[in-house]
Amino acid sequence: MKREERYKGIIEWFSQNMPVAETELNYTDPYQLLVAVILSAQCTDKRVNLTTPALFERFPTPQSMAKAEADEIYPYIRSISYPNNKAKNLAAMARMLCAEFGGKVPDDIEQLQRLPGVGRKTANVVGAVLYNKFVMPVDTHVFRVSARIGLTIQAKTPLQTELQLTEHLPAELLPKAHHWLILHGRYVCTARKPKCETCGIAPWCKKYQEDRSANAKKEKKSVK
Q1: 174: closest CA among 122, 138, 120, 123?
Q2: By CB distance 3.0 to 4.6 Å, which of 20, 108, 146, 207 could disulfide with 152?
Q3: Could you list the residue range(s) of the whole structural domain that residue 197 is in?
Q4: Which of 91, 113, 131 is the last residue of a domain?
């Protein structure tokens, strides 16, 4: 199967079966999303959503968080992965957000990456979700699923994955395709036991087709 055919089939299936695909992080404003995405690094959205209500009750605005020290933030996020570093980053992020951006989350990807705790992936997530930027954030799900189903070829880093997906996906679909791949990886194409037999995109999945071919050869040998 040619790569273009694989992309076409997968895009069509998701467009028909998952026309709405959104972040599962809970937030009510740009500040809350930015904080939630920072917290979600190497942590599940479920855990973040359990943590942020109390955090936002205590620090409802970037101005209130900017006045806090890391040790004041830490108790509210202690159940999150790497809470010490993230508490420091949140305090510093809020101070810069207020001092340089008037408390408003910037819509420029490069400016976002100036904020403490905000790398390329986090900036792309915020840009895609808040401002519908034509960017492709790559987390562990996107990285794994893209390689497994054959959307990327020999991509060794998240950046290589991002560049390949950006090259082959229509620009206007990038923000939604990001969520397609995340949700598919989270609930169907799981890391250890992918649900291949019930997967809607199996007809275009490189790994699924390879496994079927290998099993067919084994059965043929066993019959002989």
Answers
A1: 138
A2: 146
A3: 3-21+137-213
A4: 131
